[in-house]
Here is the input.
Amino acid sequence: MSFWQARRTSAVYQRSTAGLAYALMLIAGVMAFLVIAQFGDGLAAPEAVAPSAKAPKLGAGQSHALVHVLVALLAVVALGRVLARLLSRWHQPPVIGEILAGIVLGPSLLGRIAPDAARLILPPEVAPYLAVVAQLGVILYMFVVGLELNGELLRDRAHSTFAMSHASILAPFVLGAALALWLYPRLSTGDVPFTSFALFLGVAMSITAFPVLARILTDIGLSKTELGVVALSCAAGNDITAWCLLALVVGIAQSQVNDAFTVIAGAVVYLLFMFLLVRPLLHRWLQRHDGLLTSAKTAMVFVALLASALVTEAIGIHAIFGAFLLGAVIPHDSELARQLTLKLEDVVTVLLLPAFFAFTGMRTEIGLMNDAAAWLMCCVVVAVATFGKFGGTLGAARLTGLTWREGAGLGVLMNTRGLMELVVLNIGLDLGVISPMLFAMMVVMAVVTTMATTPALALLGIHRPELSNDAAAR
Here is the structure.
């Protein structure tokens, strides 16, 4: 046998082994969750507490709603910029400062030390109005995320990143579902089915914030290195899979068991419609009309964006999935995508998303964790989320041929959660699947895992000069 024949035989054997390992990994993950669900269905949780009669009504304070929203935006934008500037000295992404600004201005800090000031900036009556602005900001943000999603990156490196991407989802998903066995009797209520609780906790543990990761890699000069490209490829595949899983979980949580299959079927049909019909038609149209972004084109895009968001909301998943899906079917390298991103990015991230951070801050009450047992649960949540992401990614990275150091670096990068985690958590809180205390714990987890990224990379000795001369020159 010649050298090249032997090499081809070895490559075929490696691909077959990798394929078998991937299939066994998926089967093991599904079986593990089924066993967990079997045990969890026998657990009991306390009865749900009726909502307080003093909760603010939708119409309360309408005459001053605009003033309150403007004050809230002013405060969270200004404080977010200040905190982002301070944290940049420790190489933290700006989103950390913005998230912390919302928490600082909410009941967790300002509400405790200066209740009158907190009520002036973020009164409870403004929550419904701020929620509308926040939802609009998230919808537009997810559209921009879809526009920046590079499908070519996934296809070019699918052979090396597919297993790593899904291992970084499967491991934390199973561990999160297993953690639900302990948390459900303590942090949930009897009106929340264990399966919905476990599914949602598993998905929440599996999220990687693709846009935040991209920003961190650019800031520290790793985006053009081999490790950076692999990380972005894995994160892109991770995001797509995780959002599909979340759509499934939302469909199950919002519907009766029988209706959940209708929701899932509707989501699959719409997904196929967008990628098999809309995407090819859009490609042909862009071949003739791609160029300067006119007001007419902008109007067409926004009509399509709102329609797609409405369709997914009507299906029973969430409007943000429709926005993300439309962005994903627009070719990321087209002039249309580039100009839309250029026009929307600053307005969305600087003005509209702070409303989401403020709204999240109003709902985050760190003070609910008022004893050692609660903080122990919070630490366990952070540890499980970190170990699941890091361990799953590292194991798959080693199986695909990466070194221990590269695999560890990739595991650290995939632990970045940031804003995407907050979007998922707010969906869970809106659906009533997670309690306010668990919401606070998961927000802490999102902040801690994201802030740990750059220090952990430095601890591993992974930085610009060692990885790439091109990156070092930037």
About this structure: Residues 465-474 have pLDDT under 50 and may be disordered. The domain at 137-341+370-473 is CATH 1.20.1530.20 (Na+/H+ antiporter like fold).
